[in-house]
Design brief:
It is built from eight helices and no strands. It is an all-alpha fold and 170 residues long.
Length: 170
């Protein structure tokens, strides 16, 4: 918004947020929120898949999270959601699956409107929308692990690892 409008609402924003970013014209902040949640949702989904793959291979879920957090796989979800809300089974991060799916649809619409090819955005949006349909939009977004545990996210249904990768010990 314009400088005068920002000056009027700044005290309210400062009371609500630790960081305030001015993104530009009307709508850019909404777009940025959706894009941020796209990255967050993708990180949570991929880390959840990695956790379940590692668990099947015999790794401890807690150890997986510790190693991810000390390595390049670290992200907001591994640091602030896995032990606190997923491994604890509390599923109480305070952000619903329905809101996450909505933000991903907004991000996908932005990609389409700008003409930016975004195949992973489309897939992520589809997966989260399907999770919303199966689990319900009122579930906490961290509950997606339940869906992945049920069918590995794509119907793999508890298959055992047939042949371990070279150099590994099952």
């Amino acid at each position: 918004g314009d400088d005068a409008a920002i000056a009027r609402v700044r005290p309210v924003l400062e009371a609500m947020a630790k960081h305030i970013f001015l993104t530009g014209s009307l709508g850019t902040g909404h777009a940025m929120k959706a894009l941020n949640n796209l990255v967050s949702a993708g990180g949570l989904w991929l880390a959840s898949e990695a956790l379940l793959i590692g668990k099947r291979f015999g790794l401890s879920p807690e150890r997986i999270v510790d190693i991810l957090n000390a390595s390049t796989g670290r992200n907001n979800s591994t640091e602030n959601k896995f032990k606190q809300h997923i491994l604890s089974r509390s599923f109480a991060s305070g952000f619903s699956l329905g809101l996450m799916a909505k933000d991903l649809r907004v991000a996908a619409d932005l990609a389409a409107a700008t003409g930016q090819p975004s195949p992973l955005t489309g897939l992520c949006t589809q997966l989260w929308s399907e999770a919303e349909g199966k689990l319900g939009g009122s579930q906490d977004h961290t509950a997606i692990i339940k869906l992945l545990e049920e069918d590995d996210g794509a119907g793999a249904s508890r298959r055992k690892l047939r042949k371990p990768p070279l150099g590994s010990k099952p």
